Amino acid sequence: MVLKTPVQANEVEESLKSTPIRQAYADYEETFVILHPFLRIKEGHNIRFDTWKRPTKNDIFLGTVPVNWSEIVAQTNLRDIKELDGLLAYLHCARQEADRDAWLKLMRYIDSTKLIVAQVDEYPPALINPTLELYESLGYKDVLIYSDISDIKTSYLISKLIKSGNDLPTYCARVLTPDYKILLATNSDARFSYLSSDSATLNYMIDKLDLEGFFCNEATREGWSYHAQTENLIDWSSPERKSFD
User: Fold this and answer.
1) What is the edge-to-edge ordering of all strands in the sheet holding 174-176?
2) Minimal CA–CA distance to 149: which of 119, 179, 191, 121?
3) SS3 (DSSP) at 40
4) For the segment 187-199, what is each residue's pLDDT rounded down to a tens digit?
5) Residue 69 burial (CB count, 10 A)
6) Residues 22, 220 contacting (CB under 8 angstroms)
7) Angle made by CA atoms 104, 105, 108, in degrees to the nearest 5
8) pLDDT at 90
9) Cα diameter, the chain
10) Of 148, 156, 192, 228, which has the highest C-beta tally within 10 A?
């Protein structure tokens, strides 16, 4: 699902602390922001993230159903995906404050439906196998993987990555096809990933993988959801937050 590119607050577009996303991926025709889905556990599966033993990639892929941000926004009466991303940034401690009422609406809904919130730092395990299988269908047998802090690329057979029960082999991974045509990247603290390629390839992948997100314009920055707020705030020390920890 391709959503309308969010309109950023003036303080985001004029900020000197960050650069537009497209500058980092200028070698590619376009960049699509993949919103990491929430997860609904399938009946009969016991997927838990609150224990020392984290479920494997395959456990998550087989035992959950992705839930789009648009559905969460509609069910919780939030304003839009910008407000939802701000709440997720606060939840994962990437931002110190959030709107109190919106936070309570979101967390009460998550608590009542037992949904798993959108993952940060890594490409969602529920999407790894479908994405790699799509690469194979496009004719690729291997991919180059590296991290956000090192450009040293290691080649991996796609078939082995699919069979593995593990997530991608590095934190904040960049997954690059050997012909440098498609680049998938996830940054630290981000609730979304960047998929860069030519327009035709991106639209094909979005359709086949049923991805939800939006295309970057030349001004879109990583803080695209931020807006200043001074009233009705909740912070890390607020009792309302602690009640959902």
Assistant:
1) 150-157, 142-147, 174-176, 183-186, 192-197, 30-35, 213-215
2) 121
3) strand
4) 988 899 999 999 9
5) 24
6) yes
7) 75
8) 87
9) 53
10) 192
